[in-house]
Every structure is written in structure tokens, then in C-alpha cells.
Amino acid sequence: MPAASTSKLLPAYLFTGDQDLLKAEAVEKLRKAAGGGSVRSFYGGVKVGEILEARQNGSLFDPVAVIVVRQAAKLTRAEAQEIAEHLASAGEGPPIVFWDETLRKDVPLFKQVAAAGGEREFVPPRGREMESWVRDEAGRLGHRITPGAVETLVELVGNDLLRLRSTLERVSIALGPGVVIDEASLDEHVAASRLHAVYELQDAVSAKHALEAVGLFRQLVDEGGEPPAIVGALCAQVRRLLLARENPTAPNLAAFLGVAPYRASRVVELAKGFSPGLLRAALDELGDIDVASKTGRGDSVAALEAWLLALCAPERRGKEPHVARR
Q: Average pLDDT, whole number, for the chain?
């Protein structure tokens, strides 16, 4: 769907869909249409007074051009009603963009904005439009990309334009100026790097290195890694730790754990940092996250990140094992 019209600015917009890059580009168009100034960003859950105060900011030195409320679905009905009343009674001011993947139209504020023509859905291009977008992005970076590489890139990364752009930029840096991007280069610089990041993520979790684990997890997500695949890799490692914790002297330990011989003793040592109960609880909660990710319930990326942080945190002895909600 086209970006927000800039012929006449509306008091508010609904930016829905899963393409954050297109939303960001549309916000920039709104900013320019407003004559320049800053974009003030808030997240659902912030005090509504801060949002309304930003809209009433008349500063000549730092004028607010657009206000963006991300995770707008988290606004309570009371908060949404307060904003609706402000929009109905206040004079001119910068437009407010309510940004989320979906927004319920039974909330009067969102229904009001949609009825006024402010709803914009940002979805990925498909077919030839997607191929053209990838070719244009590669060209912007100074590369020609082969048709097979276009197909491979979308297969590896998915259809999120922000991830596709980020991946192309990394490939461009790795290849150097002017080099043709083909399937072999993508296999080397995208598929291989993702596999390596999976192994590093498993090691970081086993060592309880929380910041490293979260960083690697975000890298995998940015490169198009789907939550079910990441859950599978984490399940495999947690099961391995549980086996090592309960059977540290098993015969033919490396084969028992499914690791190379030189890694077996390391896994056993790291497993001592976890109680069996905690590892079992971790597996149970990974199962719940897996079901949620496959059925579209909740934010599986946020749930996995919270799971990682909780598992890597110091374990509280004497408490019932519970990973994602300590």
C-alpha cells in the first residue's frame, strides 16, 4: 500500500503491517511534508501526558514535526480515549502516528483515525516487485545481483525489507565495491554466518553469557532467522546440558551428547551451572514459545529474548524453577 499521502497532513495515522522499513520511510515523508523538524518517538505504556505535551511543543529551535507511538496496541482504552479527546479539541499540531503490526478497530481512537483516512498498511512487495526492490538495493550499494541470488536471498532472509537491506549491506562490505552478488557469495556470507551464529548462541547460553547470547540472537533475527528454527537450536542445546548434568560419566560421552570428543568435557563442566529442574523448566517454556510462534500468538521474538536473559541469570536456589518469569 502506498505511503502516507503528503498532500494534506492529517492529525493522526495508523501505520500497520510488518514492514518497519516502509513505515520509517513514510514517517520521513511526513516529516518533510511538515516542513522539517524532529520526530519524537514514544512506546505504548508511556504516560499519555508526555505524548500530548510533545504535540503542544511550540519550540522554534527544535520543532516537533511528527510524533510516533510504537507498540500502540499497548495503549489502554482510557489512554486511547484521552488522546482521542485531545485530537478532537486541540488546534493544529504535529500528526501522531500509531505504529504496530495490527490495531483493533473496536478501540474508538483507532476507528476514528481509520474513518478519517489515516490508515496505512505496510506489507512486503511480492513477485516481480520484490525482485525489483532487491535489484535496486544492490544497485544502490554498487553491485549487480544475479536472478538466482535474488531468489536465494529472499529464501534465506525472508521478505522483511529491513533485514534484506541489512543483509545486502553486510554482503557488500564483505565482497568489496563492484563485485557481482551471486548465489555462491550468499551461501558464503549469509548462510554460513548464520550457522556459525547458531553455534555461538548455543555456547553463550551454556556459559550464561547473557549479553553475548542476546546479541547473537538479535543477529540471527536480523538475518531472517525464524523463531521456530532458533527454538529448535536452543532446545537441542538445553537437552544436551540436561543429559550432561544427569549423566556426566556416561560411556562414550561425546556420542551420548552428540558433540565432538574435545567438546564433551566442556559441556559437562558448563552443565554444572544449571540445576536439572531449571533445565527441564527451560525446555517446557521453549515448547510454549514454539507453539505460540507457530500459531501467531504473542511476540515470540520478545519471548525468546526474555527466556535467554532469564536462563542466563544466576539461579535462585530453593525456588521453583521458572525460566521466563523469575
A: 87
